[in-house]
From TrEMBL:
Protein name as annotated: ABC transporter ATP-binding protein
ABC transporter domain boundaries: 5-234
Keywords per UniProt: ATP-binding, Nucleotide-binding, Transport
Pfam assignment, any one: ABC_tran
GO molecular function: ATP binding
Annotated PROSITE patterns: ABC_TRANSPORTER_1 (PS00211), ABC_TRANSPORTER_2 (PS50893)
Gene3D superfamilies: P-loop containing nucleotide triphosphate hydrolases
Organism (species): Halopseudomonas salina
InterPro entries membership: AAA+_ATPase, ABC_transporter-like_ATP-bd, ABC_transporter-like_CS, ABC_transporter_ATP-binding, P-loop_NTPase
Top-rank taxon: Bacteria
């Protein structure tokens, strides 16, 4: 089975009457890193909380590693490790006791060697006998990850893993996520940071207003980023695109005053020279040329705005959350 998670027609209306998810369909592939990107209140946490069995769906179905999350809750839940947004550790426990307890809660037999490996991978081994409350904020976050990995899940959810963490810890987290993927763990992370999705993900999903508005390979999105536009400001407005240049990807804007040519900037032949020669032959004169390149951020903001919502743009890593 290639898809480790199958989400079909998932809808959530909270008791308040607020609809947080609207018929979401999503398949997560085994072994991938999937980034779920969306502005505040988009429904990211609701979606992963339902998959993890913390919130009940109103309608729709979720199957995790072949187990229906409602009918076969325990088996589905055991396949998952969840790193929540909020710190949820018992502050008076030691790091070691926290991990041991968490593993036991999933009914897994004690395995000191596994817990040691997890702690060493997260640079927490030296802290294993310390009480959680004595750790720094960054270390507390690492403990959350260690705890989520204590029962050897095949799937790890990270809900905004790097919100409010410093650059060094963010780099460490990214490194750790890559190592986990290399060991076969499927990873789903939610983020506001486009940069994080760009850096980490194999595929990116964009959610807004409870609707999944795009799911695409990151590589394909990056190709779109390689798309450039050339705006040709015409001397005289055109009513329609001339037949002689019908083969180019052209659009008329601003009541025919601007001819916009979209091309692949990564290609050797952009076609610009030939396009301009053809326009000249047709007697179409221009007064200015202007080129622009779209970024993943532009694509994202465009998508979110096209969805008809008034929302703030996502942040670049490093900006305040
Ligand atoms: N228990 C609840 N009762 C009512 N409404 C809720 C509840 N939990 C969440 N919501 C609403 O559902 C919407 C989606 O919330 P959710 O936490 O899933 O968004 P999010 O994308 O994770 O946002 P953020 O990036 O801010 O964490 C929000 O408008 C939120 O106010």
């Amino acid at each position: 089975m290639n898809d480790i998670i199958q989400v079909t027609g998932l809808t959530k209306t909270y008791a308040s009457g607020f609809q947080a998810l609207d018929k979401v369909d999503l398949n997560i592939r085994r072994g991938e890193i999937f980034a779920l990107l969306g502005p505040n209140g988009a429904g990211k946490t609701t979606l992963i909380s339902i998959i993890c069995g913390i919130v009940n769906p109103t309608a729709g179905r979720v199957v995790v590693d072949g187990h229906d999350i409602v009918r076969d809750y325990r088996a589905a839940r055991t396949a998952i490790g969840l790193v929540p947004q909020e710190l949820t550790n018992n502050m008076f426990d030691t790091v070691w006791a926290t991990l041991k307890l968490s593993r036991g809660l999933f009914g897994k037999p004690a395995d000191a060697a596994h817990l040691e490996k997890v702690l060493r991978d997260l640079s927490l081994w030296d802290k294993r006998n310390e009480k959680i409350m004595s750790l720094s904020g960054g270390m507390k976050r690492r403990v959350l990850i260690a705890k989520a990995l204590s029962h050897e899940p095949d799937i790890l959810f990270l809900d905004e893993p790097t919100a409010g963490v410093d650059v060094e810890l963010r780099r460490d987290m990214w490194e750790m996520v890559r190592k986990l993927r290399a060991s076969g763990v499927t990873i789903i992370l939610t983020t506001h940071y486009i940069e994080e999705a760009e850096e980490m993900a194999d595929r990116i999903g964009v959610i807004n207003g409870g609707k999944l508005i795009l799911v695409e390979e990151k590589a394909a999105l990056m190709r779109k980023m390689g798309t450039k536009q050339l705006s040709i400001h015409l001397q005289q407005p055109l009513e329609q695109i001339p037949v002689a240049v019908a083969d180019y990807q052209l659009a008329l804007e601003q009541e025919g005053h601007i001819l916009v040519y979209t091309f692949d900037a990564l290609k050797e032949q952009t076609g610009i020279a030939e396009l301009l020669r053809t326009l000249a032959r047709e007697g179409i004169e221009f007064k200015d040329l202007h080129s622009s390149q779209s970024s993943l951020e532009d694509i994202f903001v465009g998508l979110v705005h096209n969805a008809g919502e008034s929302v703030s743009a996502p942040q670049r890593a490093g900006e305040a959350s």
